[in-house]
Queue: 4 jobs
Job 1
Amino acid sequence: MNTLLLATPEQEEEYGLKFHHRAYLHVQDSKDLAIWLPQADLVIDLLLHEQPERLAQYQTQGKADKLTVFFNANGVDIAAFAQAYAPLNFHLAGLKGTPLLNKEVLQVSLLRDDSRRAVDKAFVFLATLYELVEEKK
């Protein structure tokens, strides 16, 4: 899986420790994202909650239903977050909890139920465990 990571240097370090056995490209600006996104299968965008307009970029430049995007969804209602760009043609899932990555089982919330298979596939690739958590209403 071609994997892109959008994160601060500290978050990249945490990601590297958790997934040291998987190659990824750390993308630091939107110009680089535009170059690499059409080839990506998996995006871990830990900055998306601060730049929701990037959902439109994933929608138009990504691989549609072959793209899975994880983001930092702490304190975010995923449905409300994505509403302006709905319906999304890619799989969007939120990472929840603190710490976000530095734990044995990652917590994930889905925007849509039909994303479960894509999320399963991503976690098999990442070789780590996850549990689905419900969005708080």
Job 2
Amino acid sequence: MQHAIVRADQALARIRMGDPRSAAELLQECVLAAVATGGRVPAIRLRRARVELRPWRREDFVADLDHHLMDVLGA
């Protein structure tokens, strides 16, 4: 669970430093870790980071992340 939290926090930092593509890559890892552990905190951090990516919602790297989320979560 801690791995997913750290990855999500790192992704948030990268978004705020202007590197959303790198952040999305970290979040790809975070998705699997959050689902594997089932923890609430990783899911909250992942959701917060995804919200921060809204300005880039039309970019392929965000679409890929969204597809990954839907595949893993079954939504």
Job 3
Amino acid sequence: MAEPFTPQEPAPDECPECGTTAFELDYDAVDGSRPFPAWMCTGCRWGTAAY
């Protein structure tokens, strides 16, 4: 069984695109364009690496 992922980077304080402060950890990209976990904005879906 794989080890649970622990993000090394904390979620951003605020989204630079829409200003929200709500983020969720997304493990895989739907379209295959991002092969790593990322913090995704719950408003506009802007994201940044979580590793």
Job 4
Amino acid sequence: MRDSEPRRTVELSTVTREPMPADVRGAIVTSVDGRLMATWMPLDAPSRVPQGRVLLSWTPAGEDRTDVTAQLGLAGTQVLLAVWPGLRGEWSGVVRPTVAEVTELHAALRLATVVLDRLAD
């Protein structure tokens, strides 16, 4: 999932073991069959996080610690979803509940909006 393969999707736990590459803004994360899958978001990609997706970014924070930030893409903007300071080791399991619940909630709200729009017509 390095420069030669910027669009390849892999399990989040495989990319959280190392620092983020210098040429990315973070990893777009989606929940697929109960697993968190990640695709790097290059620095030169559009700045907005796609609607309903979560962008995770992380930076070293000392000995075996990592600061992790999550941003959620919404229809008109992106918002800070969560910050996990000082996580140790492979941290994907710590962020998984938040990312999975938020993406599933967003999908449900989007579906409800479509249904309400159709009923209103």
